[in-house]
Design brief:
By secondary structure, the chain is mainly alpha-helical. Helix content is 57%, strand content 7%. The radius of gyration is 19 Å and the shape is rod-shaped. Bound molecules: zinc ion. Zinc ion binds next to loops.
């Protein structure tokens, strides 16, 4: 059976692009399941850095969105009062 990961689970797990085919592979994989490329220690280190950066981007986005929403809400009320 050919198993294609679900859209949902693929984006919830930390993942990074394969150095060979640029398709996303999940955290903890030792070889790319798209092209069969075996990851070297160096590749794994790069992928881990990429995943960490992605994680921080997610945290920053979560911190940035509520204040922007409050500002927009305030502007809306100032304009229509
Ligand atoms: Zn690959």
């Amino acid at each position: 059976m050919d198993f294609e990961p679900e859209f949902d689970s693929r984006y919830r797990k930390p993942c990074a692009p394969c150095p060979m085919c640029k398709k996303h592979i999940n955290h903890g994989e030792l070889e790319c399941y798209h092209c069969g490329y075996e990851l070297t220690v160096y590749d794994i280190r790069l992928l881990k850095q990429y995943m960490r950066k992605q994680k921080y981007n997610g945290i920053w986005l979560a911190l940035k969105v509520p204040p922007i929403a409050i500002i927009l809400f305030t502007i809306y009320f100032l304009l229509f009062e």
